[in-house]
Amino acid sequence: MSTYISAENLGHSFHDQWLFKNVSIGINRGRRVALVGINGAGKTTLLKLLAGSLKPTEGKVAQMRDLNLGYLEQDPHFKGAVTISDYIFHADDVQQQLIRKYEELLENDPDNSKAIEQVMEEMSGG
Question: Quick one: DSSP state of residue 42?
Answer without folding.
Answer: S
